[in-house]
Design goal:
Layout (H helix, E strand, L loop, with lengths): L13 H5 L5 H21 L4 H18 L5 H4 L2 H18 L9 H9 L4 H24 L5 H12 L4 H8 L3 H25 L3
């Protein structure tokens, strides 16, 4: 069996592989990265859990239908297109008569009027994408480090505890905590950059 080359020059982009209906791995990667992002953005727009889940499913169904015809020259970046698609589907969902909040149509209209401008929507989307990238990257690299090294990174970079406090907790020197944190951060940045390359911006 041939070994897949993961180098940036030779590995096909995720978008290109999505256009191949037979490439289940590409769809698994795509859904894993964006499912929670679309869901959280929909929830931020005021949708209830079930409706946000429906928005996620609808967005992925549209992508499946249209990704083969995606033209960056006409639509811009793939992420920009996906962001707009998620926002439009969420707004459409809010406008449906069955989507109420217990206060009638006026409550729904008020939600629509309070939707942020495109720039704010873009900022929220970018934050959620980056959060999901970091979460998935952490999952991929966790087994590459010892417990002590990972805890040094996790407690200082994610839990925002001081280096001095973590050094005491783990019975390590402050210098070793800094080195461990830097090692994990370097690998984490490498993983996130790989994701960025594969989404063919």
């Amino acid at each position: 069996m041939a070994t897949e080359n993961h180098g940036p020059e030779t590995r096909p982009t995720l978008i290109g592989r999505l256009a191949d209906p037979a490439c289940e791995q590409a769809w698994e990667e795509f859904v894993r990265l964006y499912r929670d992002v679309v869901y959280r953005v929909a929830r931020a727009r005021g949708l209830r859990h079930a409706d946000a889940e429906d928005v996620s499913q609808e967005v992925f169904a549209i992508v499946a239908q249209k990704v083969e015809q995606f033209d960056p020259a006409a639509k811009g970046s793939f992420r920009g297109w996906l962001r707009k698609l998620a926002r439009d589907v969420a707004i459409d969902r809010l406008r449906r008569p069955s989507i109420g909040t217990g206060s009638g149509d006026s409550a729904v209209q008020r939600q629509l009027n309070e939707l942020p401008a495109g720039e704010d929507t873009g900022s929220l989307w970018d934050v959620e994408v980056r959060r999901e990238q970091l979460r998935l990257a952490c999952e991929r690299i966790r087994d590459q480090f010892s417990d002590g090294t990972w805890q040094s990174f996790w407690l200082t970079a994610i839990k925002h505890q001081s280096i001095a406090d973590v050094a005491k907790q783990l019975s390590r020197s402050e210098g070793s905590i800094r080195v461990a944190r830097c090692r994990v951060m370097a690998k984490l940045k490498q993983e996130v950059r790989r994701d960025d390359r594969e989404i063919s911006l």
